[in-house]
Write a structure and sequence with these properties.
Layout (H helix, E strand, L loop, with lengths): L5 E4 L25 H5 L16 E9 L11 E9 L9 E10 L6 H7 L1 E2 L3 E5 L3 H13 L11 E5 L14 H10 L17 E2 L2 E2 L1 E8 L8 E9 L13 H4 L6 E2 L25 E10 L5 H18 L6 E10 L13 E4 L6 H21 L3 E2 L4 E3 L4 H10 L5
Helix pairs in contact: 3-4, 6-7
Length: about 400
């Protein structure tokens, strides 16, 4: 039975982008390893943000060069990821909201998003020093397309990839952004070392892009909640998966250096004995995009965006001082309402029926972070710094040891 609805008046050596970024042989995801069940909830058919009808995702990935850092030349380990709420061909705005758990980061366009409750155009994520060029390229894309307004305040967020990437070389160009915008598609989403997540580090392992979804029971409306993360936060000792202290179980395989050059922070050589566990404050950031087809208004989407923090917390994040933990949520329901020039009639899920949406958001966030870790491959970047992938076999061993997986 449908719940009551309230009606209200209102890898490349240069850039490349293909639909959702063609990737090497895909590694098993959380659902395939039995870990999604340990987290809880029912994933959608794709278990991705694109399970929300109309949502499209595009990546441009930049990987070039090896060896010591030469600013302006490389090594390059970066990119851009875009999310179109209704698809690139549909300019209809959506209701949206944002929330920041800790604000040592950037998400442009949020002043107007908060004021209006309307998200106009795509959401993009990239590295910290490429926010400006990505924002400007989205405007270039928007103003040249029929049906889109001739001005805009794009929503672009960032995390810092300067450990592995020549971030001060400013390698992301407008052409890379346009390729991601035009190459976006529905269906399965490439994860790990792709797009904006190419050079990211998460809980001391290789991080990046991850996604997941949850479908509510029919009695709760059968709505879908999809999440996409750019994961670049967290300390190794704090990493938990479905309550299991995985970071405390896997204390080796910490970031190290393959070259005899200084790194910031200092890293031990990648040699035996294994590098000692890192002791450092929480650093980095996480950006989360939440999509749903549940009919939610902006104030309710603010509540949804707030719940993302609980999913991050379940994985071991705590919103450290130097972390930029910024989340945006939107609803694809109520088409033609957010951009209407007349009085619009919209549907709203009553607040008393919001709990399943909240729970789905937390579960999908937790799994999306895990999928980013599971998909990422070991990467060696600037100055020979190497960041290891989360080893699936040791993860599963820890899950079994704590009785969370058979």
């Amino acid at each position: 039975m449908t719940p009551p609805i309230t009606t209200i008046a209102l890898l490349v050596l240069a850039a490349h982008a293909v639909p959702n970024e063609a990737a090497p042989a895909r590694k098993p995801r959380a659902r395939e390893l039995g870990l999604a069940a340990a987290i809880g909830g029912t994933p959608g058919p794709i278990d991705a943000i694109t399970d929300v009808a109309g949502v499209e995702v595009g990546h441009t990935t930049l990987v070039e060069g090896d060896g010591p850092l030469v600013v302006g030349k490389g090594p390059v380990r970066t990119g851009v990821t875009v999310v179109h709420p209704r698809g690139k061909a549909n300019p209809d705005p959506v209701f949206g909201a944002w929330f920041t758990l800790n604000g040592n980061g950037e998400m442009t366009g949020t002043t107007w998003l908060q004021e209006s409750g309307v998200l106009e155009g795509p959401v993009a994520v990239t590295n910290t020093h490429s926010v400006g060029v990505v924002r400007d390229a989205i405007l270039q894309w928007q103003v040249s397309r029929p049906g889109l307004q001739p001005w805009g305040l794009p929503v672009v967020a960032e995390t810092y990839d300067g450990t592995l990437n020549d971030i001060n070389g400013f390698h992301v160009t407008p052409q890379h952004v346009l390729r991601a915008l035009d190459g976006a598609a529905g269906g399965p989403v490439a994860e790990g070392n792709v797009g904006g997540g190419t050079g990211m580090i998460c809980h001391g392992f290789k991080g990046g892009i991850g996604t997941a979804s949850r479908v509510l029971p029919a009695g709760s409306g059968g709505y879908t909640v999809g999440v996409l993360v750019q994961c670049n936060y967290g300390r190794r000792p704090d990493l938990r998966v479905a309550g299991v202290p995985v970071g405390a179980e896997i204390t080796d395989l910490t970031p190290c250096r393959t070259l005899d050059v200084e790194t910031d922070p200092p890293r031990e050589r990648c040699a035996e004995p294994a590098p000692k566990p890192e002791q450092r404050p929480d650093a980095g950031s996480i950006i989360v995009v939440v999509a749903t087809d549940a009919p939610l208004l902006p104030h309710q989407l603010k509540r949804v965006a707030t719940r993302v923090a609980l999913g991050v917390g379940r994985m071991g994040g705590f919103g450290g001082n130097s972390s930029g933990d910024i989340f945006v949520a939107f609803s694809t329901a109520n088409p033609k309402a957010a951009g209407s020039g007349d009085v619009a009639r919209v549907e709203m899920l009553p607040n008393t029926r919001m709990n399943p949406v909240f729970q789905a958001t937390v579960e999908a966030t937790e799994e999306a972070i895990l999928n980013a870790l599971l998909a990422a491959e070991t990467m060696t970047g600037a100055n020979g710094v190497r960041v290891y992938a989360l080893p699936h076999d040791r993860l599963l061993e820890a899950m079994r040891r704590y009785g969370r997986l058979r």
